[in-house]
Amino acid sequence: MATSPQRLLLITGAHTNKVVAAVSDLALERVPNPDWERGLASSLVAAASVLPDDATRLLILGCDQPALSVDHLLRLRDTRARGEAAKHGNVFCAVTGYDDAVGMPAVVPAALLHSAVTAGDVGLRKTLNRLPPEQRVVVSAAELALDIDTAHDLQRARELGQIDTD
Questions:
Q1: Terminal-residue alpha carbon distance, the chain
Q2: Whole-model pTM?
Q3: What pLDDT was estimated at residue 74?
């Protein structure tokens, strides 16, 4: 809640009951994703279905980046706000930079989410990487390159102390 969202959505798929129980103390809207097995893009489609298609700012993040910090989310939020003021309303995003690409977490206008969603496990990555430099600012966080997609990824996160070993 440190980012002070006006609206908080939780897109649920696998293990819905456990996920909902884990965040039962948060004031949020749960949006079911019946197509969760199709990948990240299906979660973005579910989110877009309940969001406006306009310039509303969205902070979008996944649940599989164990090194994600509140500080990084605040930097994205604040950088996007400063950039938007400087650009006078142009499409402007704050994106996370890791490895040689950019991706989530990111702050984007809702209209970009509506126009970008395709299929698979790519999410917004292609759209964010295609944005011209004047429409995005990159907030570097190399540690966020590791996301948990496989058992090997999980083991690596444990070795790095990013996930409890219990």
A1: 26
A2: 0.85
A3: 93
